[in-house]
Amino acid sequence: MVSKSPSSFASKVAIFLVSIAAVGFANSPVLPPPAIDAAKTANASAQTAVFSGGCFWGVQAVFQHVKGVTTAVSGYSGGEAKTADYHQVSTGDTGHAESVKVTYDPAQITYGQLLQIFFSVAHDPTELNRQGPDEGTQYRSAIFYANEEQQKIASAYIAQLDQAKAFPHRIVTEVTPLKAFYPAEAYHQDYATLHPNNPYIVYNDAPKVESLKQEFPALYKSR
Prior knowledge:
The protein contains 7 helices and 8 strands; from the N terminus they run αβαβαβαβββαββαα. It is α+β, with helices and mostly antiparallel strands. The protein has a single domain (31-192), classed as Peptide Methionine Sulfoxide Reductase, Chain A, CATH 3.30.1060.10. The chain has a 6-stranded mixed sheet. Strands 4-5 form a two-stranded antiparallel ribbon. Strand 4 and strand 5 (134-135) form a beta hairpin. Helix 4 crosses helix 7 (199-215). The chain starts with 7 loop residues before the first helix and ends in an 8-residue tail after the last helix.
C-alpha cells in the first residue's frame, strides 16, 4: 500500500483516472444474490463477518457505506496474536491476511447480501494472493466464517458464481474458520475517509465505493 502524501499534479491525475474507472464500474454487471442465505431477523443481536480482499483500506471503506453495517474495522486474521502488527504482516510470512471485521444488524441486511457486495465491488475474487498493485499472501481473498451457517452460505455462493461463470476466471477465495481477529493500528482505521486525496485511495479504493453506490443504491449510505 502507498501512503505517501500526493503532489497536486499526482492527485489530479489520480482523480482523472478514477473517473475513468468509475465509468467501467457503472457498466459492469451486478452479481446475482446468493440462492442460499440467512433470513432477516427482527430484534436479533448484532452479528459479525470477517472478510479479506486485498488492502483493508478499501474493503473497510466499502462496508462503512453499507446500510445495516454499524462498524467496519481494519485488522488481521489467520495468524497468531504475536505477529498481528503491520510490519510483520507485510512480510507475507505470518499467515495473517489484511481483514475487515464487519458488525451488522441482521434485521437490515443479511450475511448473503454482505457476500454479494464483497464479491461484486470490494475486490476481485479471482486474483490469487494479490489485489491490484498489492502482492503477497497477506492480500489474499478470504472469508473467515464465525459459524456453520456462514460457512454454508459462503461456500454455496462461491459454487453458485463459479457455476454461472460470473467471472472470467475461477474464484480463489478461501473459506476458513475464524480463529481470531486482531484490530490494526489506529493509523489504518478509516484511512480512506481521512485521506481521500491519497492517489492510492483515489485510484484503487474510491471506485469501489462509487461502484457500491451505482450497483447497490438501496444498500448504499453516505455514512
